[in-house]
Design goal:
This protein has 171 residues and is an alpha/beta fold. The chain has five helices and eight strands, in the order βββαβαβααβαββ. It folds into two domains: 103 residues, ATPase, nucleotide binding domain (Nucleotidyltransferase, domain 5); 51 residues, no CATH class. The radius of gyration is 22 Å and the shape is globular.
Length: 171
């Protein structure tokens, strides 16, 4: 099975693929579903290792949908970096180190919340976002009943649509 290290970033990510035959392939790709599908979609099942970070969960879930074995690793686990050179830290070297750790099994998986555990967290985040908006205090199901023709200030949260009338501030 091939081993893949993914140094994940918001816009571009570094991939390092170590094949069973010993070939080393390094790529810099845009961090998007389309690009992951193009580069990794047709590949046979591989063990893919990436560090836990803000965007790691959606990437891990998507790569699992493509059929890969994905390990989201705890970045504080020092033995995972045993093969890394201490000279200069680059994305390319990090991806290579992650690929080697995937091949050796030298990683500690980070906790990943199940779908059932993620729903309440998502609802809490939505409530917090609604609570932090500057509101007139008006929530209504139909904005035309409040201000006909005005549709600014609408926000979509989860499955329910809340129409918010946001006070415009004049200074």
């Amino acid at each position: 099975m091939d081993s893949i290290g993914l140094d994940l970033h918001a816009r571009e990510s570094q991939l390092c693929i170590l094949t069973e035959e010993g070939e080393l392939v390094e790529l810099r790709i845009r961090t998007s579903r389309e690009r992951f599908l193009t580069v990794l979609g047709a590949r046979p099942r591989a063990r893919l290792l990436l560090e836990a970070s803000t965007g790691s969960e959606w990437v891990a879930r998507y790569l699992e949908e493509l059929g890969h074995e994905v390990i989201v690793a705890d970045p504080n686990f020092a033995p995972m970096y045993a093969t890394r050179s201490r000279r200069v830290k680059t994305d390319r070297r990090d991806a290579r180190t992650l690929a080697e750790a995937a091949r050796l099994g030298a990683c500690r998986p980070a906790h990943r919340a199940s779908d059932g555990a993620r729903q309440p967290l998502r609802r809490l985040a939505q409530r917090e976002a609604v609570g932090s908006l500057p509101l007139l205090g008006v929530l209504a199901p139909d904005p035309d009943r409040i201000a006909p023709g005005r549709r600014e200030g609408h926000r979509r949260y989860g499955d329910r649509r809340l129409e918010l009338c946001v006070a415009s501030r004049k200074h």
